[in-house]
Specification:
This protein is an alpha+beta fold and 53 residues long. 53% of the residues lie in helices and 23% in strands. It is flat, with a radius of gyration of 14 Å. The protein starts with a strand and ends with a helix.
């Protein structure tokens, strides 16, 4: 699994074992690279609110 990160404007990846913790770190890193990284959090909040009522 590769964890994406930016260093000085360049994109690098760190290769780590495919554990649950590393998967979560990789997803967090990918979301940070997206221009609308907060979109996923907003969508999951909306889905939870819809299921409640």
């Amino acid at each position: 699994m590769s964890l994406p990160r930016r260093v000085g404007g360049d994109l690098y990846g760190s290769f780590l074992p495919g554990t649950q913790q590393n998967l979560e770190r990789a997803l967090d890193g990918l979301l940070e690279l997206l221009p609308a990284g907060a979109w996923l959090d907003h969508t999951s909040d909306h889905a939870q609110a819809s299921s409640r009522g």
